[in-house]
Design a protein that fits this description.
It is built from eight helices and no strands. It is mainly alpha-helical. Keywords: Membrane, Transmembrane, Transmembrane helix.
């Protein structure tokens, strides 16, 4: 019996999509490429650079605290996406799978996850400030707004949960 859409959960599919986005576009290779080969003054260049926002890295020139904060932001983005996909009621209240409420719940989960991941990781940096935390949360929410539609599409058609 083939494993089809019948066994896919919306939170699982959205979390997998978030993990893939972070692993691929948050990689040092993609982030370096986007920085060197795109123009931030064009919409396409800005968006390609935005995809690298939850970057992870291993660099000997950075302080351990900065490396941990960057990596923690990427990890928290995936974990918080899973948490918000489970907690948001959009897909719970949908009468049928694949409805627009699942799409918006997935998109909203990524916006919230981006904002909270940035906020939390900013607080562990050296000399954190409330203004810096607010700015970082805004950057994370911006990332979620412009990239989260991918998570919304991934959650379409999935079952609500395990059970």
């Amino acid at each position: 019996m083939p494993l089809g859409n019948r066994y896919r959960t919306a939170p699982g599919a959205g979390t997998l999509a978030a993990l893939l986005l972070v692993l691929i576009f948050g990689s040092p290779f993609y982030a370096d490429w986007a920085q060197k080969n795109t123009d931030p003054d064009t919409a396409g260049g800005w968006w390609l650079r935005l995809l690298a926002w939850p970057h992870w890295r291993f660099s000997s020139s950075d302080s351990v605290r900065e490396v941990v904060a960057a990596d923690l932001k990427a990890i928290l983005l995936v974990v918080l996406t899973a948490l918000f996909l489970i907690l948001l009621p959009g897909s719970q209240l949908a009468r049928a799978r694949g409805t627009i409420s699942q799409f918006f719940a997935g998109w909203a989960a990524y916006i919230f996850a981006g904002g909270f991941a940035a906020l939390l990781t900013t607080l562990i940096l050296a000399n954190p400030s409330l203004l810096g935390a607010f700015r970082a949360a805004g950057e994370g929410a911006t990332y979620g707004l412009f990239v989260g539609w991918i998570i919304g599409i991934a959650t379409l058609g999935g079952r609500r949960g395990v059970g």
